[in-house]
Each structure stands twice: as C-alpha cells, then as structure tokens.
Design a protein that fits this description.
Strand content: under 5%
Helix content: over 70%
CATH class of the largest domain: Mainly Alpha
Structural class: mainly alpha
Oligomer: single chain
CATH topology of the largest domain: Growth Hormone, Chain: A
Number of domains: 2
CATH superfamily of the largest domain: MFS general substrate transporter like domains
Radius of gyration: 21 Å
Shape: globular
Amino acid sequence: MSEVGSTTRSADPDSAARSGARRALLLGSLGMFVVALDTTIVNIAFTTIAGSLHASTGRLAWVLNAYSLVFAALLIPAGWVADRYGRKRVFLAGLVGFAAMSALCAAAPDVGVLIAGRGLQAVFAALVVPSSLALILQEFPPAQRPMAVGTWGSMGAVAAALAPTAGALLTEYASWRWIFLINVPIAAGMAFFGSRVLRETRAPATSRFPDPVGAVLVAAIPALLSLSLLQGPYWGWSDPRVIGGFVLGFALLPVFLWRCWTAANPVMDLALFKERQFRLVNAGTLLFATAFFGLLLSGVVFLQTDWHYSALRSALATAPGPLVVIVLARPAGRMAIRLGHRRVLLAGAVAWFLGAGLLAIQAGGSAHWAADWLPGTILIGIGAALTLPIQPGAAAKSLPPRQFAVGSAINASFRQLGAVLGVSIFVAVQSSAGPATYVDAFHHVWWTFAALGLAAGLVVCL
C-alpha cells in the first residue's frame, strides 16, 4: 500500500514522526487486541451460554464460527475500503460499529440473535484489522516495518492468552453478557482518542474493489465443511445433507482458485504464494490455528463438564499457559529475528505436540490439576508463544514492504479459517461421543490437535 499523507508535520519533523508512530502503534495494536479477544473470549462462557439460551453444542458453535467466517471473508475487501476512503476513517467506523454490535450481542434474547450479532460484529472487526495495520505501516520507515508488524501481530496472541481469565471473571461475577458489553466503553474510548491523534491517509484510487464472488467463496467453503462437521452427529454421517456439504465444499475450492487466477482484482492474490516462505507459513498458520482454537475450546469444556469446574476455576486452571504466552511473546519475536523464523516455529510446534500429548495421556475422569493438567498446559503455552506471535511476521517477511498489509491480511484470514475448522472438529467429535466414551473422545481430539500443531512447524521447514 502506498502512503499519501494529508496532515502536515509539526516544526520538529523527527519528533512528530516518532510521536505519530508510537500513537499509531498503540491504537492499532489495541484495535487488533480487542478484535482478537472476541475470537476466543466466548469459549470460557460456552457452557454457560448454552444453558442460558437453551442451545445445543452444535448450534452454539455457530456463535464462534459466524464471527470467524465473516471476519476471514471480509479482511481483504476491508483493506481496499480503508485504502480508498481513508485508513483513519475506516478504523474509527470499525470501532464504533464493533461497539454497537457488541451491545446487540449482549442483549440477545436467543441464540439466533446472538449468532446474527456475532456475524455483524465480525463485519466491523474486519474493518478494524487492515486499517489498524495500514495506520501503523504509514508511520514507520521500511526498515522498521517488520518490527511493527510483529508487535501488532503479537497482540493476537496476548488476547488469546488473556481471554479465558477475562471472560471467566465477567461470567462469574456479572453475566456472560458482559463479555460483549465490556467492548462498548473500550472501543468507544479508542475511537474518541483515535479521532484526535491519528493521521488520515489513503492510497491513490488505482485499484478496483476485490472480487465479491471470491469473498463469498472464502466464507462459503469453510461454512459448508463446518456445517457438515457440526451436524453430522445429529443428522447422521450418511445423511445426504452432510455428504452434500462435504462434496460441495471441496468442489467449490477449485472454483475459488479459478476466480483468484482470472478475476481482475482477486480477493486473494495467488501471485504472493509464489514466495516459498509466504506459502509455507500460511499453510502452517492454517494447521496451527485449527489445533490452537480447537484445543482452547475443548480444554475449557472438558474442565467444566468432566471435572465440574466453574467458569472461573476453569480459567484459573488454564491460566499458566496464557501467562507463559504473555511472558514469552516479545522475547520469541526477538529470538525469531536472531535465529530465524523456521527454528522458532519448529521449536514451538514440538513444545505444542508434547503439551497436547501430555493432556491426552494424563487428563482422565478424576481431577488432578497439578499432576495431570499443569505440565501439559505450560508446554502448550510455550508452543503458542513460539508460534502465534511469529507467524504474521514470518509470512510478511518474504514480501516487499508495500505488500506487508495484504500479506498480513491473508495470514489473518488463514488463522480465522483454522479457528472455524478447529471448533467444528472438536464439536463433531464431542457430540458423537456417548457417556462411556466421553473422556476418550477428548483424548482422541487432543491427539489430533497435537499432530496438527506439530505438522504446522514441520511444513515451514520443507
């Protein structure tokens, strides 16, 4: 993205530039944090919401998946909107709309309204993410942009780490509705502050709107696969609707690729995938996100249903892992710069595999947190810390600076699609399990997520 400024600098250009860069990095990273937080904060209240709204696990999964699907589909078109109509304007509009839709989710009288609210919430979240990154990139010289992208991307990992505890405290001491309502003052405050300090820029109007058919297919393909996975246990795996969803989802994949090759302005520029590292890191991102989001939800559900922990106790039980992520996120970024992204991502994948494997081996029907849960949780936290903050920077590193924003948006889309698959796989396995095999079902899905996490690190080293 090219940067065309519309605001003059103060008398001390260097000082003003540094101050503008700090403000943009702060607000842009906070925008990423708030949006990423809502991807996972619902997990801790999953069983509470199900009981409150009398919803099945399969239907409630769409509260998670609606957000991720819409978010993934609109990230790249939203970047075009920000470039065309102003990065600051779109960022502020995204924050205000996100706050309004969060209020709608908080007031939802039934699961249908909540799912719709989550989809609308994701529309505005998609406006926030690319505009926040563009606001950051326009303030930093090319040599400092990888650092800025890494800082911005690491906020997603920090948000995922803090989400369980924040969600549990709100659910336990207020109501699950507060996990949405809390967004209102935060986003509104950011919008007010941003309106006063951010610098407006836009790109020259040289490109057309990204292919809308491609954007629809980005959401439709994983939605069909998710529908079949979620409804298979209820309709039956041989039901024509389930089989049809799988067949149609896979059949549309080559159609999507064809649109990306032939559309005048494709929603996903396949030319970027000629860069080997970009291609491999995005494949690893999809695999690891599937493992991460699936394991995150399955762990919380296991603690609340099998060990009968409350929402708060579940959050505290899983807290060591997120704390490890918070402590190691920035050192991991520096380590990746010094040692190389591949080595750090591979180390994270190995730690993840060991941690998820330990859960599958040790966590049983009786609650023994210190012996059976804590060691695996710490290793999982190490694996996430060495992976989630590193992938956005690793994906963008191989691209020219002008393509950092679109490259990061594609990487974020792959992460959101992985979230849909991870949640769907877990819910499908858990819903298919009977009382006698309930704990075994968790073990099987944890081994699956362990293998996917390891594959995410190995694929980057190909």
